[in-house]
Amino acid sequence: MNQKKFFNDYSAIQKQLPAQAKGLPLITYSITLEAWRRGIEVSFFSAAAKNRQSTYYTLKNAGIEYNFRLSFGGLMEKAARKIVNDKAETKKYLKAADISVPEGRSIQLNNNLEEIVEYAASIGFPVVAKPLDARNATGVFTDLKNREALEGALKILREDLNCGEVIVEQYVKGEDTRVYVIEDEVIAAYIRRPANVIGDGRKNIEELIKEKNEIRQNNPHLKKFNIEIDDKLLSYLKDNSLSLTSVPEDGERVYLSKSTLHPDGCETVDVTDELSDKMKALAVEALKAIPGMKVSGIDIIVDRSEDKGYILELNGAPNICGHIYPMEGEPKDVPKALIDYHFPETADKTVDNHEYFTFDLDTVSKTLKSGAVKRVTLPALPEGKLASMKIAVSGYTEKNISDIHRTAVRLQLGGKIIRKANKKLIVKVAGKKDKVKEFSKIILRKIGPGAEVIEENRWYGAYPYYFKAPSIDKSKETSQAMKLRSENIKLKESVSKLKDIEKENQRLLKEIDELKSSRSWKVTKPLRSVKSRLIN
After folding, report:
1. pTM (predicted TM-score)
2. Which residues form a coiled coil (predicted)?
3. Helices 433-447 and 398-410: crossing angle, nearest 10°?
4. Most buried of 142, 246, 465, 478 (most Cβ within 10 A)?
């Protein structure tokens, strides 16, 4: 039995996402898509952030506008984010509000190794070591059980991550929980579960890891990080009397790590409804402890058996995608909550069938990176009576495709062209009802008997807006293009051979120079001179 039945399936959604909507840009896409579908004006612009260009966006409606980067911006005060970016400063505010935090302090790393080790011993091992300004769990080392483990972590922090100041704090056991809070309300919560597989009684662990990675590739949030078979994983299995060839029982969950970091293959499991009222209240209190903090992803270690929690940190720009695409549990619509909060006048606004439209994030990103424009504003979606249509085309020509695309763009319709086998096309189109009707008349007239309407007003899948340009038909590649490719390959081979000959020439010249400077060459100079005269 495949593990798929235990995990959420996002394969249909994954197919609709732009290529650029992965990793952190998925946060931007998820929020702007929600706003755009409501009729809020969305524009993107590029600006410098931490010595590199980053994409920002503006949301505007009814004279109110907010700038965002990823999930940060809007009503969030910059001073609040400055506080939470400093872990030591955050802890001061939390302690002042009498909120439970792990015992710990910040220490300069350079030349203070012994001081750090002594402090860790004073609060008791195991401990956690992390950079003062740690983001996205970079450089966070947990459950360091002794001096040797701590020294190893500090060496990496100093030499590999160039970290100047670290936080050392007690390691608290419990579930690593992220709670997303907007002012007084807990919107969503998930736990980070370490990398794991679920057995079927037949496959071994190595086969199950391969199967699990295929499942993760259909999760937009997790596809960036596969479960890697490395020394850490093998060591963990060995410590638990397991190996890659072990065969778990049917339905048995086998953990492959204790790490709850995404690069180590962890996954998110929604626990919003399971989180106790006490823990939800703790998250809200933590948010209120930071002046100007309106929205945050709050990390809490939760001990469910005692209904007790410790606040680890608050995030001003949390990655919300773990809530939207949990591996297990019910997905939570965090973008909706965020837009509701900033634009409450749109909270109840629904436009029939707007949820089927998507915008071209790939083109937006490429345009901004090119520097051709400073800002890109998305076209507003059509309102009023909308319609969708599917047209089948047989025996098409490339001119037919060009006509279809040009007509759809002119009429401001969404949709795409799908190439099928046996010279067939499927044209999906949607937009204002009168424009869709006009489109069908034009296309049916231009193409003739080869085109027919096969569906009307059956909404499903995604309709890129504006109309998505058709892909190149690689099967129709010209013989000339193939010839040029072949000649290009031959040219590269010739260049490679010339480089090899040049290297050999350089080697021989070097040998000649060495020979001329040798003692034997100097001693035999008179003999070479006599030989030269005899030959001449």
Report:
1. 0.83
2. 484-518
3. 160
4. 465
> Rounded distance, CA 76 to CA 74, Å?
6
Position of tokens 């001693």? 523
Measured over the CA atoms of residue 211, residue 216, residue 219 and residue 224, the dihedral's sign is negative
Measured N-to-C along each axis, helices 147-155 and 113-123 cross at an angle, to the nearest 10 degrees, of 140
Q: By CB neighbour count within 10 A (0-12 exposed, 13-18 middle, 19+ buried), where does 410 fall?
A: middle
- Give me the chain's average pLDDT, please: 89
Task: Give 226's DSSP letter.
Answer: -
Neighbours of 386 (CB within 10 A): 23
Q: Classify 518 as helix, strand or coil.
A: coil
SS3 content of the chain, % helix, strand, coil (to 5): 40, 25, 35
Query: Residue 254 in contact with residue 242, Cβ under 8 Å?
Result: yes
The rounded distance, in Å, linking the Cα atoms of 190 and 235 is 28
Contact 488, 410 (CB under 8 A): no
On whether the CB atoms of residues 446 and 400 are closer than 8 A, the answer is yes
**Which of 358, 447, 443 is CA-nearest to residue 397?**
447
pLDDT of residue 518: 64
Size (the chain), residues? 536
Of 139-143, 197-201, 322-326, 468-472, which gets the smallest average pLDDT? Answer: 468-472
Please name which of 162, 192, 156, 188 lies closest in space to residue 174, comparing C-alpha atoms: 192
Residues 104, 321 contacting (CB under 8 angstroms) = no
Q: Could you list the beta-strand ranges (E) of 271-331.
A: 295-303, 308-315
- Got the DSSP string for 478-490? -HHHHHHHHHHHH
